[in-house]
Amino acid sequence: MSKEYDYVILGAGFAGMCMAIKLKEAGFHNFVILERDKDLGGTWLANSYPGAACDVQSHLYSYSFEPKPDWSRMFGPQLEIWGYMTHCARKYGLYPHFQFETVVNGATFNEQSGKWTINTSKGDYTATVFVSCSGGLSQPAMPDIKGLQDFKGKLFHSARWDHSYDLKDKTVAVIGTGASAIQIVPTIAPTVKQLFLYQRTPAWILPKPDRAMKGFEKKMFATMPFMQRLLRGMLYWRNELFAIGFVSKPGIMKLAQKMATRHINAVIKDETLRKKVTPAYKVGCKRILLSNEYYQALTRANVEVITDSIKEVTSNGIVTANGEERKMDAIILATGFHAADGVVPFAIKGTNGLDLNEAWKNGAEAYLGTSVSGFPNLFLIVGPNTGLGHSSMILMIEAQVHYAMEAIRQMKLNKWKAVDVKPEVQKDYNADIQEQLSHTIWQTGGCVSWYQDKNGKNVTLWPGHTFTFMKRTKTFEPDKYILAK
Ligand code: N01
Hints:
The protein has 14 helices and 22 strands. The chain has 485 residues and is of the alpha/beta class. The radius of gyration is 23 Å and the shape is globular.
């Protein structure tokens, strides 16, 4: 027997929780949140590696409707962000709606009934509206390295950290030098005996303008909320300046590149190491990283940066292309996520049995990152081309949730059975997005990044300011949709 709801939400991260809060605010309580993990948090539950923290300011990386006056730092650590999420879940009454440890295996739309059937490890669910909030960075990418499965030591991905394994006095390899690695490396370097850092491409790294929040600031934000709104506004507009550099004024990026180079030179005195960590592409092409400790960690006597490519993994070590083998107790894969491969790792079937993976075989596409033609009553939060290189994803999540809520309200009001974005609307929208993206630093900066799919198409990023996206998602326009009564 299928469990019946009006709305099924997939994922208990920031996006799924925001959708649930807004449904409740609108008086729609007949919904369930399906979550494969045993608790809420999404990426902030999964990424518990040492040093995990936000690289967007917490006063902006939080719901606009639920400010937290007492963030401990400008850039909050993982556990505090997760604590904030549990606070929101309690305050907004979400706990009765969670179905944890429920793995979704597939979802199928029935044109006759106008309903979705969602097949899970705990049986079937039906709903008029299916909201997928599975997260853009939820599928860890395991590197395709020869012999990886033969390694006899400890091996895990940064997003599946094994806290039962003590790294103290161990020889450890970290593969990857992205956002996760630059937080892990300085945190574990003082504890381990030897750290081998395998770098394929260096990242541009700017100093992190982080600091502890002062007691008087926390008190002020609690008693004078407008002061916190002022700080949020300042952070918002400062970050939006970066969007200009990414999209239209690369001159701004030259300034950032100067600052990043100065950062390297200020911390690293060794010319060889300087060369190793200086990227050959333009700043901004890959995600700009922030750290005050990473380069310092690389100068430690027990840290070696290896730039020779990895040839293979043996039972007890890693061999590089020059034939050199280094032995180690553990390998940590800080090798990122399947971000550009589509949004969900299971079959979603729309009208006429159309499979979403099939529809996206030439690259993921949606309208406003939210609706996909041929998939009525499906809303994707953090769908294609909604990612940001410059600011808080929660801004985009709130905008998309607002849009989905507008659609739901109009469906109720007008008694529409189903809404399905017109194919030509989606096509024109994506042609425009790709045209805008073609001029950006992400496409012209001379790098390969996880922003792009295997064909080099950027399917992850929004090509502009967040306020432009907010404006476009403000109203649901029925004329852009096929409406079934
Ligand atoms: O992953 P990444 P991440 N052999 O894809 C390397 C968010 N995030 O987990 O650049 C050798 O950035 C790969 O090399 P290359 C944030 O949006 C946020 O670090 O492809 N190396 C790269 O160096 C971020 O952008 C926070 O040449 C291999 C690294 O692994 C996103 O998550 C914190 C390899 C992967 O870097 C992903 O970050 C952490 C191979 N076979 C993450 N395969 C916040 O603070 C891959 N690499 C909010």
